[in-house]
Amino acid sequence: METRKIDYLIIGGGPVGIQACRMLRMSRPDVSVTVLRPEPFSVIYCAIPYVIEGILDPMQIAKKDELITETGAELLQIPATGVDFAAHTVTLEDGQCLQYGRLIIATGAVPFVPPVPGSELKNIFTVKTAKDTEVIKNAAKAAAKVVVIGAGAIGIEQAQAMKALGLDVHLVDMAPHPLSTMVDGEFGKIIADQIVAAGIHWQGSSPLQNFKGIHAVEEVVLSNGSSIVLHPGSDFVIVSAGVKPELSLFRDSGLEIANDGIVVNDRMQTNIADVYAAGDCVHFVSGIDGRPLGGKLATNAVPMAKVLAKNLLGKPATYKGFFNGAATCVSELRVGGTGFTESFAQRRGFEVVCGFGQTTSKFPIMPGAKKVQVKLVADAKTGKLLGGQILGPDAVAERIDVISLALQHQLHLSDLAELSYSAQPWQTFYPAANPIVMAAEEALKKLRAL
Ligand SMILES: Cc1cc2nc3c(=O)[nH]c(=O)nc-3n(C[C@H](O)[C@H](O)[C@H](O)COP(=O)(O)OP(=O)(O)OC[C@H]3O[C@@H](n4cnc5c(N)ncnc54)[C@H](O)[C@@H]3O)c2cc1C
Fold this sequence. Notes:
By secondary structure, the protein is of the alpha/beta class. The longest helix is centred in the C-terminal third of the chain and has 15 residues. It has three domains: 176 residues, FAD/NAD(P)-binding domain; 118 residues, FAD/NAD(P)-binding domain (3-Layer(bba) Sandwich), CATH 3.50.50.60; 118 residues, Enolase-like, domain 1 (2-Layer Sandwich). The chain is built from eleven helices and 26 strands. The N and C termini lie far apart (72 Å). A hairpin with a 4-residue loop joins strand 5 and strand 6. The strands form six sheets. Strands 1, 2, 3, 4, 5, 6 and 19 form a seven-stranded mixed sheet that branches. A five-stranded parallel sheet has the order 8-15-9-10-11. A five-stranded antiparallel sheet has the order 22-23-26-25-24. The protein is 26% helix and 27% strand.
C-alpha cells in the first residue's frame, strides 16, 4: 500500500484526540489532520455508571463523530500497529502506512487488574469501554452478589449502580477509608458511614490477596484473612484499582517512558522530534511541588491537549502540572478534593497545618439547609495552600474549583481568609461566614500559634 502524507496524525480519539483535532483544524483549516480511534464511538466515561444503573441509554454517552469530522479532519476507525519515528510513519492494522509531519500520541490508559493468583478467571471485569459497560450491565441481570475492588470514585460509583440494581454489594479497598486519594480520615469516616447506610458492605484496610475458582471466580480472598464467596458463573467482581498508560505500540521504539507514562516537557513534547503526547498516556508532575504525580483525569487531559495544540499552532504555552481537582457522589453526599490531602502532603515531606470550616448549604432558616464541611491543608512553614476537601449536599465541585484556582496561583491561607464571596438564602450560608474562609482562618490561627 502507498504511504499517505498527513500534517498532524493523532493516535487516539478520547478527550485529548478530540480537543487537539478541533483546535488544530479550526485554527488551521489548511492543514490535514487524521484521528485514529478504533472503537465505534468515543465514550463519556464519567457517565458509564449511570448507563449501568439504567438512568441513561448507552447511546447517550456516545460522543458524536462530528466533533472530529465536522472540522474537516479524517477519522479512521483502525488501530495503529507500528511506529517508525525515524521515517515519521505509523502503520495501521489494515496495512496502511501514514507519514506524519507531527505525531500526537493520545492513547490514554487502560484499567489495571492486580496480577494476583486467579486474576485470569472469568467474571472479573474492569470499567472503561462501551463493551465493558454492556458486559457489566448484562452480568448484573443474572447475579445476586458483586465484589467491587477499589473504593476510588470509579469503584464507589460502580458499587452504587450495582446496589441500585438490587445486588448484594461488597466494596473493599486496601486503604483504611474510601476515596483515600481525595480526602483524609475524618471525611473518609463520614463517607464510609454513608456507604454502609446505603446498604453496601464496606471493608477498608483489606488488600486483595487472590481470587479462587475453577473457571469463574468463586471466592475473593483478602489479606486481612477474610473472604467473600460468590456463586460461580453468575456473581462477579469489578476491579477499579487504577489504570496504566496504554503504550504497547511504543515498546523498544526509543520513546522515553517513565513508570506512569510517556515523559514530556511542559509543552507536551516527547524526547523524539515532532512527536507530542498528552492525557492519560503521559507521566507528569504535580503543580504543587513539581515532583512526579499520578493525574489520570479528563480534567487534566483536556488542558494538556490545549497546551499541546497551542504549541503546534505556534502560540507558546506551558502545562503547569496536576492539581487533581475531582468530585463524586456518595448517595446524597457530594464529595470533592483538590491538591494534596494531609496524609499525602506529609508523605511528600511537608510539615502541614490544617483548618476546618462548617456552615450550612443555605441560610439555616431556609428549608433543606444541610451541612457543608471544608478542610484546608497548608504548608506549616510558609502558609502556602497544599489542598482542600469538601463534603456537602451541592455545589461541592464548584467550591473545589475555587480552591484549585488558589492552588494554581500558589496562594496562601491568608489569601483564602480574605476571599471575597457571595451570599444568598437558597445558595449559601449567611453573609457572616463562608466555610472556605472559616477553614483558612482556623488554619491561620494554628499557624500563628506554632
Ligand atoms: C469509568 C470512568 C470514569 C471516569 N470519570 C472521570 C471523571 O468523573 N472526571 C474526570 O476528570 N475523569 C474521569 N475519568 C478519566 C478520564 O476518562 C480520562 O482521564 C480521559 O478519558 C483521558 O483521556 P485521553 O484522551 O488521554 O485517553 P482516552 O480517553 O483513554 O482515549 C484513548 C484513545 O486512544 C485510543 N487508542 C489506544 N491505543 C490505540 C492504538 N494503538 N491505535 C489507535 N488508537 C488507540 C483508544 O482507543 C482511545 O480512543 C474516568 C474514567 C473512567 C474509565
